[in-house]
Amino acid sequence: MTPGSDPAPAAAATSLRRDNGLLGIGIMLLATIFLSAGDAASKYLASSVPALHIVWLRYATSALFLLAIIGWQRRSATLRTRRAGMHLLRGIGLIGSSMLFVSSLKYLPIADATATSFVAPLFVTALSIPMLGERVGWRRWLATTIGLIGVLIVVRPGGAGFQLASLLPVLSSLCWAFSLIITRLMSGTENPIATVTYSTVFGALLMTVLLPLHWTEPTVEIALIGIFIGAVSTAGHWLVIVAFRFAGASLLAPFSYIQLLWATLAGYILWSALPDLWTYVGAVIIAASGLYTAHRERLRAQQIAAR
Q1: Which of 80, 121, 197, 289 could bridge to 143 as Cys pair (CB 3.0-4.6 Å)?
Q2: Helix (H, G, I), strand (E, B), or coil: what is residue 303?
Q3: pTM of the model
Q4: Radius of gyration of the chain measured on its C-alpha atoms
């Protein structure tokens, strides 16, 4: 799942920036394919496997990959931290986001869940007031309101096809936004590699503790698909980091929404399901409001830097 850009990998890549916009866009598009493949595999399992197991398999695999890479590169020094509690909070936010999103896939078409999850940047705007003490101008509030209207168009509460599961991707995005705010709070003191690694490892440990609460015996097929989910999710997020080495967030952000196209194709090929027109209308509105919000935040950052 990729509701929004994560400041931690973005920060990690910024210091190694080599401007090459086309290469950055190409890598970002490849990342969305990997991330969509992970979501499609999660939906395949969600019909018969508890979300708890799917998320555990993903985080356990990702944690093993990250620790193996850090060990291979002998970069254990990058894991030093004095803010373990903040890393734990970030991990809880990410776990909550993953659990809610994967749970929604049991009931919703993958494209609908993906479209609704794009609301995350708008929640970041709202949470930045109480958690970061930021002042949000009327333009960003207007963009947030319009984005929420887009969510209502996708979800259509009160409509004939509405189900409570439609709210799960919205709540997932709220958890994701919380984790992004925590990332911002730590960005000035924590190594980005440590931020990503600790959150993943904490998530894997937390899911391991919770696993006995809803234990079912996994088959070889489930285990292999779970490992696949962890592998492609890790690869997708790594590709996002690489993409930021060649292009800025303002250029890459619009291309992250291509994930809706891959989700639509996966839904049609695997489940013969296509979103209706209103889902696309709502998704466009959500994406446009998110991009405008990102634009206003970039302008605000430039104004602060110029003072």
Answers
A1: 289
A2: helix
A3: 0.86
A4: 19
